């Protein structure tokens, strides 16, 4: 069974990754939905989980998510 923590979402104002304060997501679609919901608290970062340190994957803002290709999917 694969690890369901492929992506993580947390506020962009937290510059460093916080493994205890983020929301883990199994896929990018779920990460976008979580990030979009959480933009009411400010911009969000979706982190790509790796075997080493997580990578900042994308910054999600209210404007970006509203215009993303995901909305049509």
Give an overview of the whole structure.
With 73 residues, the protein is an alpha+beta fold. Helix content is 23%, strand content 26%. It contains 2 helices and 4 strands, in the order E-E-H-E-E-H. A 4-stranded antiparallel sheet has the order 2-1-3-4. A hairpin with a 6-residue loop joins strand 3 and strand 4. The chain is globular, with a radius of gyration of 12 Å. The termini are far apart. 22% of the residues are buried.
Topology diagram in text:
Layout lengths: L6 E5 L11 E3 L2 H11 L5 E5 L6 E6 L1 H6 L6
Antiparallel strand pairs: 1-2, 1-3, 3-4
Helix content range of the residues, please?
A: 10-25%
Task: Tell me the major beta sheet.
Answer: 4 strands, antiparallel
* H and E order: EEHEEH
Helix/sheet category: alpha+beta
Q: Please compute the radius of gyration using only Cα atoms.
A: 12 Å
Portion of residues in beta strands equals 25-35%
* Largest sheet strand order: 2-1-3-4
Q: What best-fitting shape do the alpha-carbon axes yield?
A: globular
Give the mean pLDDT.
Answer: 84
How many helical stretches?
2
Number of strands: 4
Features:
73 residues; alpha+beta; 4-stranded antiparallel sheet
Summarize the structure.
This protein is of the alpha+beta class. It is built from two helices and four strands. A four-stranded antiparallel beta sheet has the order 2-1-3-4.
């Amino acid at each position: 069974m694969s690890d369901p923590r492929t992506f993580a979402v947390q506020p962009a104002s937290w510059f460093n990754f916080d493994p205890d304060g983020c929301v883990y997501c199994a896929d990018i679609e779920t990460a976008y939905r979580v990030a979009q919901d959480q933009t009411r608290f400010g911009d969000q970062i979706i982190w790509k989980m790796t075997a080493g340190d997580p990578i900042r994957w994308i910054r999600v803002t209210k404007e970006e998510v509203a215009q993303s290709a995901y909305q049509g999917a």
